[in-house]
Amino acid sequence: MKRVFSGVQPTGNLHIGNYLGALRQFIELQDDHECIYCVVDMHSITLPQDPKELRSHILDIAALYMAIGIDPKKSIMFVQSEVSAHAELGWILTCSSYMGELSRMTQFKDKSKGKENGSIPTGIFTYPTLMAADILAYDADIVPVGNDQKQHIELTRDLAIRINNRFNKNTFVVPEGRFMKEGARVMALDDPTSKMSKSAENEFSRISILDSDTKIKKAIMRATTDSDALVKFDIENKPGISNLLSIYSAFSGTPISDLEKQYDGRGYGDFKKDLVEVTINAISPIREKFEEIRNSHELTKVLDDGRERASVIAEKVLARVKNDFGIGR
Ligand code: ATP
Ligand code: LTN
Fold first, then answer.
1. % of residues, the chain, pLDDT over 90
2. 88: Cβ–Cβ under 8 A, 6 or more apart, which residues?
3. What is the C-alpha separation between 267 and 301, in angstroms, rounded?
């Protein structure tokens, strides 16, 4: 069976971009793959976090994993900082990476924009090597993620291949990214030129999985469109309605071309009203399950068990890597 690894940062609640781009794939894969899903809390501290909120968000993301359908009998679920192999392998990979390639990461460029060199946190610079360690520590074959992570997956592959070539052996499995056709890059509702994000200031820029029906309705009805009122997919000239069409198609499974026909001549009002319904129907069952799971003993047990199972795999890989590098005795 092929092995799958992915992670989500506990910096806030999940939005529909996270769900449609990445988490939907987690569920699809778990029947015929060996899946490992991580709450990557060490990535979150690349920027300062309130400790109380961070701890609470770690459990929120774990509960959301289960609420969307991750089955701990089939998949391993755990918290990154509880398996020390990630940090150790992260350092080894940092030593095999170059300043040049890390400087080219667009997420780094975005997050350091406007800051002077002296005040850019080192963690946001070296973070892709920790992400590579997350993946390589499990000999993962497949990494289901949103489009924004493509460059980080490429770097992970480059590092794995570089080290394999250096030692002339298969120190690492070279993984591949897996991306959705619809929903791989959900854009902000108030600005369809930037991606939907947990951290954007305007709460109506996103729909969180735990939002109330009223909030969902408001966010969709206010979403930026254009003035010609044609329900047509055209990313260049009509990014707002194109984004909404992608979301509709991803939730309903209806191809965009069919949606265009269905709403031909009917304007944005009808389309948005239906999108509200489709979205609420898709995410309200997740919200209900989340409430049940979040404070249950089961969640603690699942994460304890996940930590043990993940450690066994990662420790083995780490021992192999240390041996190849010649560190330790
Ligand atoms: P955000 O930008 O929303 O704060 P993030 O990308 O920094 O989130 P994560 O929460 O770790 O960090 O992302 C989890 C998964 O969701 C990743 O696979 C990522 O590629 C995917 N993802 C994040 N935003 C979007 C989006 N707008 N559209 C599609 N997939 C997304
Ligand atoms: N970098 C990712 C989160 C992440 C991840 C991973 C995803 C950290 N480690 C390993 C897949 C596999 C992000 O910011 N969305």
1. 93
2. 318
3. 50
Q: Contact, 148 vs 195, CB < 8 A?
A: yes
Residue 209 tokens read as: 């999985």
As annotated, the active-site residues are 111, 195, 198
Confidence class of residue 227 from pLDDT cuts 50, 70 and 90? confident
* Measured distance CA(47)–CA(96) in Å, rounded: 24
The tokens for 34 are: 């060996």
Q: How confident is the model at residue 48 (pLDDT cuts 50, 70, 90)?
A: very high
Name the closest ligand to CA 143: 2
pLDDT of residue 207: 97
Q: Which helix (H) or strand (E) holds 77?
A: strand 76-79
Q: What is the pLDDT of residue 172?
A: 98
Report in angstroms the alpha-carbon separations of 244 from 254, 262, 278, 281: 13, 14, 12, 16
> From the alpha carbon of 7, which atom of ligand 1 is closest?
11
